[in-house]
Amino acid sequence: MTLRIALIEDDRPTSEQLAGWIRAARPELRIDQWFDRDAAEAALARERYDLVLLDIELGRERHAGVALINAINKLHQGTPVLVVSAMPAAIYRGIMKALDAWDYLQKTAFSEDEFIDTFLDMLRAAQRSRGQSVTKAVDDLQLDPLWQRSAVWRGQRINLPLTAQRILATLHQKRGEVVAYEELFDVVKSGRSKDNVRKHVAAIREALRDADPSFDAIENVPMRGFRWRS
């Protein structure tokens, strides 16, 4: 089945450049290009894309991309979104991640190779997760958002300290993605170091293997962080 990409960018030369880079790397992909919010919103409601690439500003709408990400999350939760914008990455990367965008690239600050590497990494992660049953994934791991009860893995309670539960929740929520050490520092209240994060992850693995000896879903990504395999 042909994978479908939505490219939402109001600047036509930029849209053509990004589409050209994608076609050069993966000529078999189908790329639908949209240049304004209304057309993009209609397409997103009509089609299920494997990956969406969008700008934040579209025409005179400064935050049109935010509205589109929210629409994607409501319509097709879990669809990978790559934001490519001129807005400062230092400010907007965290905002976009909070909206569940998978990654953020700042225009003029990345090369063709960096763009393609990021795009293909996201596409591969999307393909890995495509065949997974979302219901099964949710049923396998149950987390208490108020952190008043222990996590449950396949019906068995997992005894973990609060920080480890937060790391577990972050990895599971972003399954299929690499979660960087720096992102995990956000949920570690003290001892924000790579060694400390690794100790928490080791404790998570041990607790899950106590409940399920075959558990191996959390993998190390050298120099970067960890990934919950889909």
TrEMBL record:
Q: Which SUPFAM superfamilies match?
A: C-terminal effector domain of the bipartite response regulators, CheY-like
Which InterPro entries does UniProt cross-reference here? CheY-like_superfamily, OmpR/PhoB-type_DNA-bd, Sig_transdc_resp-reg_C-effctor, Sig_transdc_resp-reg_receiver, WalR-like, WH-like_DNA-bd_sf
Q: Which PROSITE patterns match?
A: RESPONSE_REGULATORY
Q: Which UniProt keywords apply?
A: DNA-binding, Phosphoprotein
Q: Which residues form the Response regulatory domain?
A: 4-122
Residues with the 4-aspartylphosphate modification? 55
- What is the name of the protein in this document? Response regulator
- The species this protein belongs to is Roseateles agri
